[in-house]
Prior knowledge:
The chain is mostly helical.
Amino acid sequence: xxxxxxxxxxxxxxxxxxxxxxxxxxxxxxxxxxxxxxxxxxxxxxxxxxxxxxxxxxxxxxxxxxxxxxxxxxxxxxxxxxxxxxxxxxxxxxxxxxxxxxxxxxxxxxxxxxxxxxxxxxxxxxxxxxxxxxxxxxxxxxxxxxxxxxxxxxxxxxxxxxxxxxxxxxxxxxxxxxxx
Length: 180
C-alpha cells in the first residue's frame, strides 16, 4: 500500500513539473529594440540648449553671404552637435563643409584648422583612436581660440587612451590658460 501511495504522489509531482516546463516554453523572450542610442536616451536641458544653438548657427550659415562665414557657422554648429551627443548631425555639417567648400576653392589655414578640429572631435566622440590621432597631428591652429580647442581635444584623446593623469594635467594647464 505504501508503495502505491509513493508512486501516486511521485506521478502527481512529475505531471506538475511537466506542465510547468511546457508552459515556460510557450512564452516568448523579449528582444531589445533596434533603436540607436541617440533615439533612446532622453535629451537633457543642456543638450536641448546646445541643439537649439546649433540649429541657429545652421540657419545663419544658410543665410550667410560668404563661403568663409558659412564654413565658420557650420563648423561651430558641428561642434555644438558633438557636445550635445548628436554625432550624425555633426557629420552632416562636416559633409556639407567638404562638399561645398573644399572642392570650390583652396581653404585658408583657419578654415583647414576648423575642419580638422571638427573631424577630430567627431573621431573622439566615436572612440576612433587611430583617426583622432592622425587628425590631431595635422592640426595647426591659426588662432588662440583654435589652440584652446586643440588642447581640449588632446585632453579628450588622452582620456580616451586611458592616460587619465596626462588628461588631468592637460586640463589643469588649459584651465590656467582660460583664466589668463
